[in-house]
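step: validate -> pass
step: tokenize input -> pass
step: predict -> running
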Amino acid sequence: MEIPQELRDYPCADYFDSNLALEGYWDETNQILCILPVTEVHELTDYKGQPLNFLRVGRPGVDGISFGYRKNQSGIWAYYPILGEFQYLSATIFDFLNSWLDGKITL
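step: predict -> pass
step: emit ->
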């Protein structure tokens, strides 16, 4: 799938080049769609409506935390809205997903 023009500043080719963009990923253990299909992907804003330069492609289902890409920065990140902070998680969406499912990445 081609990356939409408005999202090309995000290093998200690994997501758009995979079936994750079409189907997302259902985490059976946690009973949540932890990686979202492209129809549910969006850029986040802060509580004042200011852009965070963060493309949300997933979620763990707690505390409003999101997984995604930061504009012009490599890797997958977590965004913690309560703290207003980002945390680097892994190099690619696949590294992230495998580590998440193996319990190597926790929040």
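step: describe -> The chain is about 15% helix and 35% strand.
step: cleanup -> pass
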